[in-house]
């Protein structure tokens, strides 16, 4: 684990160095690209700092690195195990947008988020002090029967409301792109491969953090 952590830190340092050097070059010689735009951008009359710009660049890399592919893993695992639901998509691709929203609710690829309390409060009888770190389970919220009837039933026909992309000022910036990618993949895949199943004897192991599957061997018919 120490070797893995060291490798991750080295990679992060290399990426940061690349962005830092490229940003310095863009400040001297602006181009038609995002780094040049960030270097010239102002928020309330103030320019973004170097650290803020590099932080945004890291966000752009990490936010979409694994989330869509991990979501597709979960989608295909679910559909492989529920052929009757899969057939709905095969028979009528117009159902795909609502199917995507419902599976986003059910699978919740980003299972939780961390927040810092800005004031003293109480949640469910548990006192929370200003400055406390709070872990919020989006998966639990998405299956809360107090807010959604039959929350444990996957229904592609329902108008699914969920928190899989977060909410408020921290809502996922790439949610519209992610939806487009998910819808397009499901549509084109099922045009070509309508029948598939998980290889016999496979045990699905879901990983900690992002909801992803260790390995997903599929058999195409």
Automatic annotation (TrEMBL):
InterPro entries: Cyt_P450, Cyt_P450_B, Cyt_P450_CS, Cyt_P450_sf. GO terms for molecular function: heme binding; iron ion binding; monooxygenase activity; oxidoreductase activity, acting on paired donors, with incorporation or reduction of molecular oxygen. SUPFAM superfamilies: Cytochrome P450 (SSF48264). Pfam families: p450. Belongs to the cytochrome P450 family. This is Unannotated protein.
